[in-house]
Q: What sequence folds into this?
């Protein structure tokens, strides 16, 4: 398959997702309406809003100009490699495995996919759309229970599962992904709009994504009331049963331990050096000098997926954009296409 054919296929796929998103905003009973209902029933962390958000993210990736620029970065691309690439997908947010699958198909390889039990329904529906966009991919996708007869592996999981993946797939070229988190660096001069957009970075997908902000760095004189005021538009998150159960549990633990924390009845803010935080909890840490902080974050970059800030810290992105990665914005900063072509 040649680049022109791939660009045509992805352009067609973009139009398909645009129509799906449009139809989901109507009362029309489409196949994707049924898919959403089944996916929400199977995984209570998935909601109609979060699934549509993920679909919009895929559509955002598939802009023709961006696809052309992306593919132009790989002049050595062999469009028909036919290597068998094992993909172990995560299921923390809807259709999170799409990008890996797309890279394998575009690189001319065969995707041997182990689906996450938490995201089987949506990913199978996405595969149908891929085959509509390009029927030639029919022989390039296999769904399996175990990864056998493979040439390379891309596995996404937790810090615990990564040890198992590294051991089990040690003889194959591999990308093994562990836990990473998004962080924010605030200077106290952010506008209310900036902080509301930060709320989207925190609360989208209930904070379960590796790109969600789970920790903020703030100056010593930072006024946290500004955060709580800006986050009021997200108060409806407390109506989600699993989320508020997490909130109640972690609030009770903090109270029992007599730990200091701040809360607005749907978010707990606590001082903690960890990047990772439980659902409904936002960690914070004070800093004195932003340049010293930048050095510290660079040292710990392997734990960080993305940074949102108005400060010029390495690779920082604007508030509200953590869940809109471009097609060449690779997880963990590892170029998946270069790995597939090496």
A:
């Amino acid at each position: 398959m040649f680049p022109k054919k791939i660009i045509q296929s992805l352009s067609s796929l973009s139009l398909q997702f645009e129509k799906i998103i449009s139809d989901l905003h109507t009362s029309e009973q489409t196949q994707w309406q049924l898919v959403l209902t089944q996916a929400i029933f199977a995984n209570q962390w998935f909601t109609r809003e979060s699934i549509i958000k993920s679909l919009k993210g895929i559509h955002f990736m598939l802009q023709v100009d961006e696809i052309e620029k992306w593919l132009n970065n790989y002049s050595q691309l062999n469009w028909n490699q036919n290597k068998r690439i094992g993909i172990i997908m995560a299921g923390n947010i809807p259709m999170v495995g799409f990008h890996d699958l797309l890279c394998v198909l575009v690189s001319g390889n065969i995707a041997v996919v182990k689906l996450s039990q938490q995201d089987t329904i949506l990913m199978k529906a996405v595969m149908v759309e891929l085959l509509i966009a390009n029927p030639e991919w029919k022989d390039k996708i296999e769904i399996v229970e175990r990864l056998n007869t493979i040439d390379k592996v891309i596995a996404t999981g937790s810090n615990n599962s990564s040890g198992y993946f590294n051991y089990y797939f040690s003889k194959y070229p591999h990308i093994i992904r562990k836990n990473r988190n998004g962080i924010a660096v605030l200077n106290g001069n952010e506008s209310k709009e900036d902080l509301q957009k930060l709320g989207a970075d925190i609360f989208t997908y209930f904070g379960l994504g590796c790109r969600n902000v789970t920790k903020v760095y703030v100056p010593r004189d930072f006024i946290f009331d500004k955060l709580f005021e800006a986050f009021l538009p997200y108060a409806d998150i407390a109506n989600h049963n699993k989320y508020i159960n997490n909130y109640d549990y972690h609030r009770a633990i903090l109270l029992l331990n007599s730990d200091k924390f701040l809360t607005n009845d749907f978010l707990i803010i606590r001082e903690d050096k960890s990047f990772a935080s439980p659902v409904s909890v936002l960690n914070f840490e004070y800093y004195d000098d932003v340049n010293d902080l930048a050095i510290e974050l660079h040292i710990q970059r392997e734990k960080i997926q993305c940074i949102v800030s108005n400060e010029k810290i390495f690779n920082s992105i604007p508030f509200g954009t953590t869940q809109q990665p471009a097609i060449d914005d690779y997880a963990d900063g590892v170029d998946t296409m270069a790995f597939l072509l090496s």
Notes: The chain has a mean pLDDT of 94.
